[in-house]
Fold:
Amino acid sequence: MTETCAPKNILVTGGCGFIGSNFVHYVVNNHPETHVTVLDALTYAGNPANIAGLPADRVEFVHGDICDADLLDRLVPGHDAIVHYAAESHNDNSIANPEPFLRTNVEGTYRLLEAARKYDVRYHHISTDEVYGDLALDDPNRFTEQTPYHPSSPYSSTKAASDLLVRAWHRTYGVRATISNCSNNYGPYQHVEKFIPRQITNILTGIRPKLYGDGLNVRDWIHTDDHSSAVWTILTKGRIGETYLIGADGERNNITVLRDILEVMGQPADAFDWVKDRPGHDRRYAIDSTKLRTELGWAPEHTDFRKGLERTIAWYTEHRDWWEPTKATTEARYQQQGQ
Ligand code: NAD
Ligand code: DAU
Structure:
């Protein structure tokens, strides 16, 4: 399938978070014809430094909330597409306090869909593989676009709810929407509360890494740059009303990832602590991205996980000023939870 005309003006929500900011960099570096407006509320997970230094004629930053309908009325007209990344994204936080997840993930998506409907703007929805629940370690199947929704956590249930709103707004009101469900991302600018950055920055600050449960839970890792290229492919070539799963065949259990980190960082293989498991902890995620690859011709470029991990470790080592201000608060919260 060929690329439709590249959008001239896109509104990227959550563009100061981990994956959203990587997408903004990707667009600036690869699609000179496209201007980006970033809408971000700068919660604890948003950092304007993630997009600082990008050319002012390519990227405009608007500080605001996706639940603010008046702001959306002013902002959405004039854009060709909305790419919706903004969310409360961390499972452990959703277990401690689900309320912000309901507000941002469900109400926020509703507000954006209403704006997309009112101003007839193309809408792409960023979602997660977690909406499908989990798989047993020995299940030969992976998630496909046909897998029934079966979310487990407050976070994933609000993401599932938001996906269903998108489907309804497309079918009922004809909103020109697509959805993508991606697996676990890694790379630069990821908050230190998440698994890989937490372990790297623990080692860099003399704290022992922490592994939940038995360490055998499996995640399907993809470099965030590959997520960005997949989203661009769907935005420009995807069929309206369709869902595409994004994954890079990166299944690994947590203890294997941690052992890689310890080895690259010159630590003994047993230099970590076992900690309390996450309640309701999903066992395994695995994505079959055949539809995206065969229908739209996308393929991941960063298929060497170990190399991607080494570059990510180097990035955190060289950017202490980026993560140090949030490290102590994050670890204090984990300590309170026994993790
Ligand atoms: P993140 O937590 O790093 O960033 C979220 C961003 O959204 C932050 O900049 C935050 O300030 C902003 N935000 C939160 N509430 C807002 C609101 N009400 N209004 C405006 N902005 C708000 O998240 P992430 O890991 O980059 O995830 C981005 C998206 O990708 C989410 O929708 C998530 O569900 C999805 N996703 C994440 C992964 C992953 O591995 N991290 C995998 C698949 C899908
Ligand atoms: O699958 C996509 C999802 O990936 C996204 O939708 C979420 O936004 C994103 O946060 C991520 O969710 P996970 O819960 O899989 O990611 P997290 O980094 O929190 O944890 C990864 C695995 O590592 C999980 O099995 C829990 C475990 N873990 C996590 C932390 C923070 C540990 O063992 N120790 C830790 O310190």
